[in-house]
Amino acid sequence: METVEQLVSFNHIIVQLNGGTPWGFTLKGGVEHGEPLIITKIEEGGKAEQCKKLRVGDELVNINGSALYGSRQEALILIKGSYRVLKITVRR
């Protein structure tokens, strides 16, 4: 039988994208929609694809050291405020 830890285990992946916008991924969801913030698209040839760490379906949980509380608007402000470097943590 699986333990609770095995049933709810997630991997947290820290990703650093460099060079400025566009970062090359699209988000969907947020508390406004009753859903987690999920990466729904990774642009071909974009910075998110080139890093080879992000996947469609990853949940965004931290941007530049700021924990997210699930608001898409909050995430977009933090992402747009990233000038040369975007450091994000996703839960898979």
Description:
There is one protein chain. By secondary structure, the chain is α+β, with helices and mostly antiparallel strands. It has a single domain, classed as Pdz3 Domain (Roll), CATH 2.30.42. Helices cover 18% and strands 38% of the residues. The protein is built from three helices and six strands, in the order H-E-E-E-H-E-E-H-E. A hairpin with a 4-residue loop joins strand 2 and strand 3 (35-42).
Give keywords.
single chain; alpha+beta; 3 helices; 38% strand
State the end-to-end distance: 22 Å
Q: The CATH topology is what? A: Pdz3 Domain
Structural class: alpha+beta
The CATH class turns out to be Mainly Beta
Beta-strand portion reads: 35-45%
Total discrete domains = 1
Largest sheet: spatial strand order: 1-6-4-5
With helices defined by DSSP (H or I, 4 residues minimum), what is the helix count?
3
Rg result: 14 Å
The major pleated sheet works out as: 4 strands, antiparallel
Mean pLDDT: 91
Can you tell me the overall shape? globular
CATH superfamily caption:
PDZ domain
**Named CATH architecture:** Roll
Name the helix and strand elements from N-terminus to C-terminus, one letter apiece.
HEEEHEEHE
Number of strand elements? 6
pLDDT below 50 for ≥5 consecutive residues: which ranges?
Answer: none
Give helix % range: 10-25%
GO cellular component, one term: cortical actin cytoskeleton
Protein name: Shroom family member 4
Pfam family, one: PDZ
Domain PDZ: 12-92
